[in-house]
Design brief:
single chain, alpha/beta, six-stranded mixed sheet, 10 helices, 39% helix, globular, binds adenosine-5'-triphosphate
Length: 234
Amino acid sequence: MLELKDIHTYYGNIRAVRGISLTVNAGEMVCLIGANGAGKSTTLMTVSGIHTPVDGSIHFEGQDITETSAEDRVALGISQVPEGRLIFPDMTVLENLELGAYKRNDRDGIREDLNKIFQFFPVLQERQKQRGGSLSGGEQQMLAIGRALMSHPRLLLLDEPSLGLAPLIVKQIFEIIEQINTDGTTVLLVEQNAQIALQVTDRGYVMETGEITIEGTSPELLADERVQQAYLGE
Ligand code: ATP
């Protein structure tokens, strides 16, 4: 479904991503793990089109999207949940969700997706008239995921959904992410919490200073001594 070939992304002179190649197959849940500053978010934002690579190519469902705008990538079926959630605090929960569907005009489909999101996250239905900013951190993460789902993506990009959340809330959110994947949405997940990421995903890539250093199925990575020492605190 997604293929990155030899992607290089810079911030001015800073080489944040240095020749990344990776694939995500339809239906899979794949993670990108690694330390702070390894280049995971930059890779994800290169997939969503927020950053443009200086070299390399990105294909989505067979189509070259390297030059496609972020907005058009949403319309093609790629949606990102950004790090830090970035919901609109002064808009209501419902307004935040509706924003996710701004490129759509299939009213029935939008209503159907909204109902599905309320099934995943009943608290968002209960609080739909409240200000986004009045939600707890975990609820805001749910809102950010819900907003991304409102574009009806086939590929969902998640950047650090566990950030700043208590372990119990992280567990709840990951259970729902697994369910979203089981229901048919392909997921590419960026996480510093390697333990939980490798427990829920099918495959993973480890990034260090802009490069992929280890890759494999998630059970293989969980059993890998290098991963255990560097990322699992074992
Ligand atoms: P984190 O988990 O902290 O988000 P990460 O693995 O996602 O880390 P990136 O955020 O992609 O890493 O950062 C990769 C490198 O690019 C780091 O050296 C970082 O300092 C640098 N970087 C990230 N964003 C910018 C920016 N806007 N301007 C300049 N350098 C940046």
